[in-house]
Structure formats: structure tokens, C-alpha cells
Amino acid sequence: MGRKRLITDSYPVVKRREGPAGHSKGELAPELGEEPQPRDEEEAELELLRQFDLAWQYGPCTGITRLQRWCRAKQMGLEPPPEVWQVLKTHPGDPRFQCSLWHLYPL
Amino acid sequence: MFSEQAAQRAHTLLSPPSANNATFARVPVATYTNSSQPFRLGERSFSRQYAHIYATRLIQMRPFLENRAQQHWGSGVGVKKLCELQPEEKCCVVGTLFKAMPLQPSILREVSEEIIPPVSAFQHNLLPQPPRSKYIHPDDELVLEDELQRIKLKGTIDVSKLVTGTVLAVFGSVRDDGKFLVEDYCFADLAPQKPAPPLDTDRFVLLVSGLGLGGGGGESLLGTQLLVDVVTGQLGDEGEQCSAAHVSRVILAGNLLSHSTQSRDSINKAKYLTKKTQAASVEAVKMLDEILLQLSASVPVDVMPGEFDPTNYTLPQQPLHPCMFPLATAYSTLQLVTNPYQATIDGVRFLGTSGQNVSDIFRYSSMEDHLEILEWTLRVRHISPTAPDTLGCYPFYKTDPFIFPECPHVYFCGNTPSFGSKIIRGPEDQTVLLVTVPDFSATQTACLVNLRSLACQPISFSGFGAEDDDLGGLGLGP
User: Fold this and answer.
1) Cα–Cα distance between B249 and B29 in angstroms, integer?
2) Is residue A1 part of a domain?
3) Which end of chain A is more exposed for a tag (fewer CB within 10 A), N or C?
4) Which residues in chain B touch residue A59, judged by CB atoms under 8 angstroms apart?
């Protein structure tokens, strides 16, 4: 007997051809050289913002935007890191930057 | 003082009409500023948790408490966080109190479907708890919470008196059982106060609360009309009219409508029975509009909403909408203000509420006297510590507006069972007049505050009712 009939048998089988080095994403790298660097920087900035969210000194982070939380911490004299404000100012309107870590969860 | 002034003038009633009529100009309000801006809400968003209020409350109050702790227990006392506590080491901790009360009404307990026999005597799983006047119990426990941890408290701390949400500093040490043994504790005490400029003439502010319109009782309507007549100078001799001209402002502190206007029987009835009936509050608001028209034609009036008034339920209650008072809003002397109301009248700072904060603390604390509770809120430096826990509150996130930024000169609360007034002193020579304004529909009493001497006097209006047997004493009986 063959193997059990799976629902995926009704779909055509498509196998991706692996590149010689084993990675298929690496093809784009030599053509557009700037992409990985901004991504790394962005990742570093997002990581900075995530650490700001998780810092307990500035109060709860859910339900308010990071900018609101930073301004509240500033008004209360808690001296939040100015780098966070710089990052928030350079990416206005981007929900990955502006909203807190848990904004996808209701309340 | 009011009636003594009145008695000094010559009697002019019961005399033939005179050619010239005496006129009394009302004392002008020299300076008035409404500082209730922190209690005004613009865009409201309820998609936030209440953790923000508690966090900002603790962060804002921490410096005050650390100062007081150093004043009480010496400047060398170590103020530590709960995570830094070492066993058996005496130190001071600042945090928010939480009182675990088994009798506290809990919606989860009400809707829980467990039919397991209750473990403790006071778990009613099947029936909702009937409303009680006090929810305290000898088994209540106090827990201190700071930003990261919580710890149970035991020792010389009055569990029944304190309520959830108070920020305080405790001095003691943590024991082996994990509880903190309290030796002493202190509150933030009174905020700094700017001295009031001295006044040269007597000026009065009339505080009334609990008019209770729409309640169906004719007694209180007579009292209300007498009040309006006295203030507008239509009652009494020239002496009384002269004294009434010294009343520079009237503050109506909440519960303008009666509790019975809130009855929701029409919800349970069928639609065809209730189609043409109006809500009871509509008629009551019309009566209120007429009373406010008479008052605001003569004196500046500030109207604060209360528990039964048509505005939002959560604190801070927003001002009543001017569309409900088409007649009275024609006068600019009518001011519709928020529930915790703050204003500076002739240099004297007034701060007051309609009484929801004090009655909520009354329910969850062993303190019996409303005046004592009012003083306690001032000493704790917070208008309503139970606010998000048992009293509805807007989810603030930036600041907690109920913390006293500075100490008022007159601090009042409305809708208390009886009149009371007291002058208290603070540690930095602050002087505050505390006034508990009684419910007018029950007691027919209002309060007159003298701005020059910061003294308060009750003034009561009563008519002879059918059940009064005082008529016998007047010699009118058979």
C-alpha cells in the first residue's frame, strides 16, 4: 500500500530548486548592496525600542504608544534615553516603531 | 454671623410702605479663576488598562513620601524597594496599599457557576450579595505593592481603617514568614499651601448639595424655594437682605436630581406600556432649569454634577450639558463645572467633590464620620484613593489628577448625612477649612462659608409640615 491520502495531494507538488550554496535568498544580495545594512539598523532600532518597552522604570507599556510613554517618562523626570526619541522621530507613522510590543493583543 | 449682622439693622417689616426703597448691591467677585482643567477630559479612550493610573500615582507620590519618611524616622533611614529587602533589616518601603476584602462585591464571584459548598462562610456563589453599608471584615488583609513586587503587611497597622489605593511609607522589617512586620507608617500629609490674601469685608460662599429634584417630596421643594429667595434677597427684613447681598457665589455640589429619577422600571416593562412615558429626569431637569434661572439672574452659580445627575458615571464627572438648561444658560453667571471642582474665589482656593469619593471610602473603611474621612483624604494627599478599584474612574495614563498639587483653603464634599465643619492645621502651617455639606433634600441645610475668617455656618430652611406638632407649642392649637 502507498502512504495515506493527504489533503495536500490535491495540490500540485512544487519543489524549490536549491542554490549551489544551499541558500536561495542570497541571490539578491550582490545586486542591491544597501538592503542588509538598513535591515540590520532597523533591527537594532526595533530592538532598542523593545528594550525601552520592557524597562520597568517607565511604567506600563500596553495601551499607549511609545512616544506617549516616552513623553510621560520625560515629564515625570525619569530621564528616558534620548536615543529612543530620536528613533521614534525618524519613523513617524510606522506602527512597528510607534506602537508598543503588545499592540496586536487586545488590551 | 449672618443673622447677627441682620439683627443689627432696624426692623422695617410691618411698617407702612416707604417712599424710597433700599437697594443692596451684591458684592462683586474680585477674582475668580476656575482651575478644574485637569479634570476636563477631551477625547476619551477606554482601550487602556488601569495599571497606568497606579503606576503614575506611585511615581508622583514617591518623592513626597520619601521626604516625610525622612522627617519622621530620621534622615538616615534607608528607603528600599521590595526587591532589595534583607530579612530582619529595618528599613522603609514606599508603595500602594491593596486591601484583600472577602466581602468586596466581585462580579466573578456573582457569575461563577460553581455549586461546590462554600469554603468560607461568606462566599455566596448562588445569590448575589445584598448591598451593605460597610464591606469590612475582621479577616481583611493588607498588601503593599510597589513597581515590581507585593508583600503582605502585619503589625501595628490599622487594617480596617485603610483602603486600597493609598500610597504610604511603612517602616519595619521583613520576617521569615515572608510578611513585612510594620512598626510605624506615615502618609504624604498636606501639600504645600499658598497663603490666601486677606480680605477687608465679609464675603460668603453658599454651598448646597443634594437638592434632590424629581424626588416627589414637596417638603424639599419649599426648602429649595426658600433658599433661592434668601439668596436673591426676596426674603426677610432689610438686615437679611443686606446680609444676602454679601453672598458672592453659590456652589451646588451634586445630586441636583433625586435618586428616584434613576429608576429603570421602564426597561423591564413592555414597550407598549412605556411608549408615551418620559424619563423622570426630564421633568426634574426642567424644574432645575427654573431654579437655576432664578439663582443665576442674581448671583454667580457653579453647578457640579453628582451621582444621580445626567452625566458620565466615572470620575471625573464632566459638566452637565448646557442644552439641558435653555432658560438659565442665557445668563453668563451660570457655570457648569466638573465633579472634583477646583477654583480660586477672591484668593481663597476651593476644592470639593459631590461626595462619591467619601462615601466610597466609608463603605470600605471602619471610619464612621464623613468629616474624618474628608480629613483623611487630605492627609493621604489624594482626593479618591479607591478610584479605579471600587469607584469608577477614567483610565488616565499621563498623570493622576486626583493627587493634591497644592493644599486648598476650603475643602468640601457634598451629600453627607449631616453638616460638619472643622479647621485643621498641617505640618507646614497650612490651614484648611473642611466642610461636609449635608444632603439638602433630607436635612434642608446649606452651608455659608465666610471667606474673610474661613469659618462655616449652617443655614437651615424648614417649613411646618402636616406632621409637625410644633403648632401646639405656638399656642395655635385648641
Assistant:
1) 8
2) no
3) N
4) 51-52, 55-56, 59
Q: Judge: B49–A62 Cβ closer than 8 Å, yes or no.
A: yes
Give B470's pLDDT tier (boundaries 50, 70, 90).
very low
The pTM of the full predicted model, rounded to 2 decimals, is: 0.83
Asked whether residue A32 is assigned to any structural domain, the reply reads no
Domain that holds residue A42: 38-98
Residue B160 contacts A, CB cutoff 8 Å: no
Contact B280, B260 (CB under 8 A): yes
Count of domains for chain A: 1
pLDDT, tens digit, 9 for 90 and up, residues B312-323: 999 899 999 999
Which residues, at least 6 apart from B410, have a Cβ–Cβ distance to it below 8 Å? B205, B348, B349, B350, B351, B352, B432, B433, B435, B449, B454
A49 domain-assigned: yes
Provide the edge-to-edge strand list for the sheet that holds B301-304. Answer: B334-336, B301-304, B247-253, B204-208, B445-450, B455-460
Angstroms from A47 CA to nearest CA on chain B: 23
Q: Is the peptide bond before B316 cis (omega within 30 degrees of 0)?
A: yes
Contacts of B127 (CB under 8 A, 6+ apart): none
CB contacts, 8 Å: A57 with chain B: 147
Asked if B55 lies within 8 A of A68 by C-beta distance, the reply is no
For the beta carbon of residue B211, count every other beta carbon within 10 angstroms: 28
Q: Provide ipTM, 2 decimals.
A: 0.80
Which contacts of B183-186 are long-range, i.e. CB under 8 A and separated by 24 or more positions?
B183/B90, B183/B155, B183/B156, B184/B72, B184/B73, B184/B156, B185/B157, B186/B65, B186/B68, B186/B69, B186/B72
Residue B419 makes CB contacts below 8 A (sequence gap 6+) with B436, B437, B438, B443, B445, B447, B458
In a domain, A84, yes or no: yes
Residues of chain B with C-beta less than 8 angstroms from the C-beta of A100: none
B149 touches A at CB < 8 Å: no
pLDDT, tens only, B160-209: 999 999 999 999 999 889 899 999 999 998 999 998 888 888 889 999 99
pLDDT at A76 exceeding the cut of 60: yes
